[in-house]
Design brief:
Length: 138
């Protein structure tokens, strides 16, 4: 497998999840940067992600507000390659991933993670899952 770095975006009307992800030559996935940002700041944050590591592709979830985010990126960075992908079931997977990465305290330890809704947005985890889907199947 070749090394490849992508920026994945879970677009929303008010906020977007973003994840800068690198697939190593051995097929390992490294998360270089992730964030939840106001949708209006998406292009500025895209440049911030590029300062962490240059990426070859922008992956955008094809759900809510994706057309507007694609238009914003194309107008500000016309040379960037964009791939719009299906984001089916990513929110459910992101909730599970949140609990894998966040220690549960108190009563939360007693209930299975699958029965709990995280107390904060998981849009950045959705973006991470979008990136993994593309990188692990390309």
């Amino acid at each position: 497998m070749n090394e490849k770095t992508v920026l994945a975006i879970d677009p929303g009307s008010s906020k977007c999840g973003m994840a800068l992800v690198k697939r190593t030559g051995q097929g390992k996935i490294d998360v270089l940067w992730r964030n939840i940002v106001p949708t209006l700041d998406i292009v500025a944050k895209m440049h911030e992600a590029a300062s962490v590591h240059l990426f070859e592709l922008v992956i955008i979830g094809g759900g809510t507000y994706s057309n507007q985010v694609v238009s914003s990126i194309r107008s500000e960075a016309p040379g960037v390659a964009i791939l719009v992908v299906d984001e089916r079931d990513t929110t459910l997977h992101a909730r599970e991933r949140y609990w894998v990465n966040t220690k549960r305290h108190g009563w939360r330890r007693l209930l299975p993670a699958t029965l709990q809704v995280p107390p904060e947005p998981v849009d950045d985890f959705v973006a991470l899952i979008l990136a993994e889907r593309v990188l692990l199947h390309s």
